[in-house]
Design a protein that fits this description.
Length: 354
């Protein structure tokens, strides 16, 4: 990964983007894509769209990722100055206590999610309290002092920094799914550099973690799109505490994951696999018998049915402050998106042959 692309990824990961509060991250994304897109636009809720204009009669494809991350939200200020919080998306109660957090008020406020010291707990009573039963300590002595800094409805995220691991692997919070929005932007840049015949949209959606809401909006608004490719993370199963016999083998560093079944249109699956083969990109396969759990589930039922595909980035420890990915996988996903775009013109129309 070259330095400008790596810096862009770092900027995305450093910018908090809990569901419903994605504006700052979308500004980072739109500023980057303006450097190579023919046009960039946003809608009322902040979905961001960039486009490479192809040949007039060529098919149109959209490559997408979701900008939002899980987090918390301030729901009450207690009489002693502590804060009660609620969940934004699928926040994990087993990893939250004892963590540094940032409350994204008018000015950022640092805090910690309280955890009683082990010396003061009865080990037999240890349990993971639900998020609404946990609390944030910002150091305030009373509710008046707390309210000088925060108010109900302020979003909260873990304060984890991006860490470089051994080799080309990084750890951070919010990789789910700033990695996908990075790949969508980079896929567009590489497709534009190759001047592909297809018209290619790159899309950074909002509010995926709370019900695929941004994708539902975009699926209607982009009424000229012939196919969607939704990029998200998927569970890597190569760490010791995952039962790969039940989950299926997905490994970090082994390349993009192409999903088969459910929302994944078989013609697009074949196109992606052929494009990967032609571009010499190693890919992995994953099964989705019921749903993908990604924006593809919203895109494929838009406008009476739009061919859609879920391409994934292997990710360890999803929905924790220490998600881990391999940068080579991210680069390969962006290359795959550009390769799919390059072969789109010759592959259409996207319909099953009955």
């Amino acid at each position: 990964m070259h330095e400008p692309e790596r810096a862009f990824l770092g900027d995305l990961l450093a910018t908090a983007s809990p569901s419903g509060f994605e504006t700052a991250s979308q500004r980072v994304w739109t500023e980057y894509v303006r450097g190579f897109a023919d046009a960039v636009s946003t809608d009322a809720y902040g979905n961001a769209i960039a486009v490479h204009e192809g040949a007039p009669d060529a098919p149109t494809i959209a490559v997408t990722g979701h900008a939002d991350e899980i987090g918390f939200i301030v729901r009450d200020v207690l009489a002693d100055g502590f804060l009660r919080i609620g969940r934004i998306g699928g926040s994990d109660r087993t990893v939250s206590k004892g963590q540094h957090v940032t409350i994204h008020a008018d000015e950022p406020v640092q805090g910690v999610i309280g955890q009683t010291a082990i010396h003061l707990r009865d080990p037999e009573d240890d349990e993971y309290e639900a998020i609404p039963e946990q609390f944030v300590d910002i150091g305030a002595n009373d509710p008046e002092e707390a309210r000088e800094h925060v108010e109900v409805g302020d979003p909260v995220t873990f304060s984890t920094d991006i860490e470089e691991l051994v080799g080309d692997r990084i750890a951070a919070r919010g990789i789910d799914n700033r990695a996908g929005t990075w790949a969508a932007a980079e896929g567009l840049r590489r497709a534009a550099a190759a001047d592909v015949d297809a018209t290619v949209y790159a899309v950074s959606t909002v509010q995926e973690e709370v019900g695929l809401q941004g994708a539902r909006m975009v699926g209607v608004d982009l009424d000229d799109v012939d196919a969607f490719v939704a990029v998200d993370v998927t569970h890597a199963t190569d760490n010791p505490d995952v039962d790969r016999e039940r989950r299926g083998p997905v490994e970090l560093g082994a390349g993009p994951v192409i999903t088969r079944g459910s929302a994944n249109h078989p013609v697009l699956v074949d196109l992606a696999r052929q494009a990967a083969m032609d571009a010499d990109i190693d890919v992995q396969l994953q099964a989705a018998g019921t749903r993908t759990g990604t924006d593809a589930d919203a895109f494929y039922t838009s406008r009476g049915g739009v061919p859609s595909l879920n391409v994934s980035i292997p990710n360890r420890y999803m929905h924790t402050p220490v998600e881990v990915v391999d940068l080579d996988d991210l680069d390969a996903v962006a290359d795959l998106l550009a390769a799919i775009a390059a072969e789109t013109a010759a592959a259409g129309p996207f319909a099953v042959d009955i």
